[in-house]
Design brief:
disordered N terminus, globular, 289 residues, 14 helices
Length: 289
C-alpha cells in the first residue's frame, strides 16, 4: 500500500514554479544545475540519464559539462568520439555555440556541450557562464548543468545562472554532510531552495538498518524530494558502455529517471515501489535478460 506521501507524489513550490513557467510560454528554457558537494555520488550519471529522459518526453535538452579539466559527461553519454569544440572554446570565441553542440541521435533533441580537458576552472568566470546559459536557454526547454563536486569556483560557475538547483546525494554520512553544506550555501548566498535526488538507495539495507532511510535523509537535509534512484548494477554497466540506461524504458531502474523527468514537467508522479533484488535477479539484469 502506498503512503500518503507516495499518493501525493512530489509537489513543492519549486515544482509549481517550473510548471507555471512551462505553462506561461515564457521566453527561454529552464537552467537546472545538478550539484553534490561530495564527489562520486553519481551526479554525472544522473545528469546524463535525466537529460535523456526529458528529451524522450519531447523536450529540447542541452546538457552542459561544467567540470572544466575533468570532462566525463561525454563518456557517460557515449559521445566522446564526436567532440570537436568545448565550453571554453565558445566562451573564448574560437567557435560558435551551435558548432560546439554535439547531438545525441538516440534521443530526439538531446545535445551535449562538453567541457575542456586541457584547461582548469579559472578559464571561466560566473558572469561568462551566465551569458552562456542565457544563450542556451534561448534555444532549449531545459539546460542541465553538471556541476563539479565541491564548493569552490567550479561550483560557483555552475550555479550562477541556475533557475533551480538539484542536489544529488547517496545515503552515506559523508555525502549527506557535504550535501547539507551545499544546501546551506545555496540558501545563504542565493536564497535558493534546492530539491533532492537520493541515489543508490537500497531498501534491503535500510530495513536492516545498515543504510540511512529516506525519511531520515529528508529530516537531516530539510528540502523537497525530487526522486529516488535505486542501487542497480545496470547504471554502472550502462555508464561504462556510454549508453544511458534511461534509453531503455523496460529496465526497472530506467523508470526512476523517467519519473523524475515527469515531475520536472509538473506531473504528480508517485515514488517507485522498490523491488527486492536477489542475486539470481541481479545476474539476469547484468546479462540483459
Amino acid at each position: 500500500m502506498q503512503t500518503d506521501e507516495e499518493m501525493r507524489g512530489e509537489s513543492s513550490p519549486a515544482a509549481r514554479a517550473i510548471q507555471d513557467h512551462l505553462n506561461s510560454g515564457a521566453d527561454g528554457g529552464l537552467v537546472l544545475t545538478l550539484t553534490s558537494g561530495k564527489g562520486g555520488v553519481g551526479k554525472t550519471t544522473t545528469t546524463a540519464n535525466l537529460g535523456t529522459a526529458l528529451a524522450m518526453a519531447g523536450q529540447r535538452v542541452i546538457v552542459v559539462d561544467a567540470d572544466i579539466g575533468l570532462r566525463n559527461l561525454d563518456i557517460v553519454m557515449g559521445l566522446e568520439s564526436r567532440v570537436v569544440y568545448n565550453l571554453v572554446d565558445v566562451i573564448e570565441g574560437r567557435c560558435s555555440l551551435h558548432e560546439s553542440l554535439v547531438r545525441d541521435k538516440r534521443a530526439k533533441e538531446l545535445y551535449l556541450l562538453p567541457s575542456s580537458q586541457t584547461r582548469d576552472k579559472t578559464a571561466v568566470a560566473p558572469d561568462q557562464m551566465m551569458t552562456l546559459c542565457e544563450e542556451l536557454r534561448a534555444i532549449a526547454d531545459f539546460v542541465l548543468v553538471d556541476s563539479p563536486a565541491g564548493i569552490e569556483l567550479g561550483f560557483q560557475n555552475a550555479i550562477a545562472a541556475a533557475s533551480e538547483v538539484v542536489v544529488v546525494t547517496t545515503p552515506e554520512v559523508s555525502a549527506l554532510r557535504d550535501a547539507d553544506k551545499v544546501i546551506f550555501l545555496l540558501e545563504r548566498d542565493l536564497n535558493t531552495q534546492a530539491r533532492l535526488i537520493i541515489n543508490r538507495y537500497n531498501p534491503r539495507l535500510v530495513r536492516r538498518k545498515e543504510m540511512i532511510s529516506k525519511d531520515d535523509i529528508l529530516s537531516i537535509l530539510s528540502i523537497d524530494l525530487l526522486g529516488i534512484v535505486p542501487d542497480d548494477d545496470q547504471i554502472t554497466v550502462s555508464a561504462n558502455k556510454g549508453w544511458p540506461v534511461a534509453l531503455e524504458r523496460k529496465k526497472y531502474v530506467s523508470r526512476a529517471y523517467h519519473n523524475i523527468a515527469q515531475r520536472l514537467l509538473g506531473y504528480n508522479v508517485p515514488l517507485m515501489h522498490f523491488q527486492e533484488v536477489n542475486w539470481p535477479e541481479r545476474l539476469r539484469r547484468l546479462i540483459g535478460l
